[in-house]
Write a structure and sequence with these properties.
9 helices, globular, single chain, alpha+beta, four-stranded antiparallel beta sheet
Length: 212
């Protein structure tokens, strides 16, 4: 194996991440910094770059009280975190396709011909997907952006915890979203850790990898 020098900052971010369940309740994240974190997280890949992820940042006491019935046993995160970030998948994300691809053309990252060809194939394809198939698409996109969000947050010196054990029914409506369009995928708590968090183990790569 080639002897490649490791980026220590990168390894500190990845290997130092812990799932935190108790945060310092006095630490808040300014809106502009939260938007920066989310913007950086959206550098994650998504299917045909439709960027189907949508976020609701629940940071007020009123918002957290509204969220409380949905998060089951994750009460400590909700009470102490600077914010609970709800990650939804937009089942009609293709409506932004033209805007996304036009921007790519304007920034000379794509030719007009490529844009027209791809949109001509992608948009009708997406429109014909069943709801169940679109849910699978946006779930993968949301998972990618949520992982990136947690790594970006750590790079900003915040801690996180991914939460998938929550009640999804009624969550979109509770925060003013159309439940037919916005599919809840994950909740990510974010703030400054008030505990170390448990280190965990991983199966060896040789155990879970197959070469053919």
């Amino acid at each position: 194996m080639p002897n490649q020098e490791k980026n220590n900052d990168f390894y500190d971010v990845v290997f130092g991440r812990r799932s935190i369940r108790r945060y310092n309740p006095d630490v808040k994240i300014p809106k502009e910094e939260m938007l920066t974190i989310i913007q950086e997280a959206t550098r994650a890949p998504s299917a045909v770059n439709m960027q189907s992820w949508r976020f609701v940042v629940v940071e007020s006491e009123e918002g957290k009280e509204q969220l409380k019935p949905f998060i089951r046993r994750n009460i400590s995160q909700n009470e102490s975190a600077a914010a609970m970030i709800l990650v939804f998948g937009d089942l009609q994300c293709y409506e932004y396709g033209e805007e996304i691809y036009n921007q790519a053309v304007n920034e000379k990252k794509m030719t007009p011909e490529t844009r027209d060809d791809q949109l001509g194939r992608i948009i009708p394809h997406y429109r014909n997907f069943s709801k169940e198939k679109m849910e699978k698409v946006v779930t993968i996109d949301a998972g990618l952006v949520a992982m990136q969000l947690m790594l970006v947050a750590r790079n900003h010196h915040y801690d996180t915890c991914p939460i998938t054990g929550f009640h999804s029914d009624g969550l979109a409506e509770a925060f003013g979203l159309d439940a037919e369009r916005y599919y809840p995928v994950m909740v990510v708590s974010i703030g400054q850790a008030a505990e170390t968090g448990f280190d965990t183990v991983r199966l060896d790569a040789e155990q879970i990898t197959y070469f053919k």
